[in-house]
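README, section 4: Worked example with a bound small molecule

Sections 1 through 3 covered apo chains. Here we extend the same pipeline to holo records, where the ligand is supplied as SMILES alongside the sequence. The molecule in this example is pyridoxal-5'-phosphate. Nothing else about the input changes; the structure line simply encodes the ligand pose together with the chain.
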Amino acid sequence: MSPTPTPPRDSEKPFEVTFSQRVYRLPPYMFGRINNLLYQKRRSGNDVIDMGMGNPSDPPEQLVIDKLSEAAADPDNHGYSKANGILNLRREVAAKYFKKYGVRVDPETEVIVCLGSKEGFSHMCLALVGPGDNVIVPAPYFPAHMYAVMLASGNAIALEVADSEKFLANIAYTCEHLYPRPKLLVINYPHNPSTVTIEPEFYVEVVKLARRYGFMVISDLAYGDVGFDGYVPPSFLAAPGAAEVGVEFTTMSKGYNMAGWRVGFCAGNAEMIRALATIKGYYDYGMFQAIQIAAIMALRHTDAAVEKQSKIYEGRRDVLVEGLRRLGWKVDPPKAGMFLWARVPDKWLARMSTMDFAMLLLDQGDVAVSPGSGFGPAGEGYLRMSLVENENRLRQAVRQIGRCLEREEARWQQEKTQPPLPTDADLEPPPSEASLERVES
Ligand SMILES: Cc1ncc(COP(=O)(O)O)c(C=O)c1O
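The generated complex, written as structure tokens:
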């Protein structure tokens, strides 16, 4: 028998996994602290009111769920589907664009189905952006807008969207002064997180700038189905010439309550759609066909439910705005979307960051919100509160926030009125070792 060979010394070292540079480029996940505490609280049985994510809590219409069951029972629907999405679903998307915005898109070449619009957006960035490319993204930013650009090795330039006129002027200024000129502009209205909305003329200006400076445009219309007080968020594609310079992403996650189903769409410029289709062809085999069939039913038959859902968010918006104003906060009611973007009162900002403030509300008030800093430096000073909990729970959340802050203020007062802690000079000299021995014996 031959002796067992001695293993090479290297195998004694722990095996090292190294990531690609693109993973190392990603900044730390800002919502990690909040999510960990939320998880711990829930595990220990606390009933946390969750206004963190924009994750709809209401179900889709029953007829959509029934169609999904029926289609899932059909053996023909279980193979790989088309990576672009089935033609009938793309036709339905084109029909909605025409009905809602008067926009004509060709379902064969100008529409593609994505596994949620976030997937589509990220892969579109891979298709359009490479090392050294500059991309303008909105600030504060929905994380995917920034990170998809970074993952594609592009440079993201975040421009503030709070004032739409200034935003347009800053886009022009950046194009005039930056080399290489931005290749792509990402816009998102109704904006997440800041809830800023725009009128159709804004998009006319965007198309003009795109033509003047030669950048492409991606419009993220994720909240296009959620408008309040008669406001209908406009489509970028309705601006003259928009489909020559860009595309638009829409989703069934928000207005149709189908977030977990992962159904999104991209429509507009045929070449950009083709580039996305090429990338997607390498990464995925398309969406489960039963979901696509049920999505057709939802687009065709549930307009009234989508409107009703907007009304529900509108009601929740009113409850939350009124409640926070009663606490003395200054909040503007948004015209669309699923969030409130609330300025944290100055007396709290003078003491702590919005991250610490959000941690305080969660830890002491059992209310989860997103600190504005999670959306980049332009978000500091604000909290994003989602409208996914029902009106009663939102009222309860306001009470819990009020009580939590009152307790915290009382604690400050107490700290102020307590005598100052003694300094070293006030203290007795420490006992000698000999005296200590005496005490012990
Ligand atoms: C601005 C914005 N874009 C895209 C998405 C992602 O939507 P989807 O579920 O279609 O991936 C969200 C979801 O929160 C969003 O807020």
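What to look for in the output: The chain has two domains: 30-54+305-415, 62-301. The radius of gyration is 27 Å.

Section 5 describes how to batch many such records.
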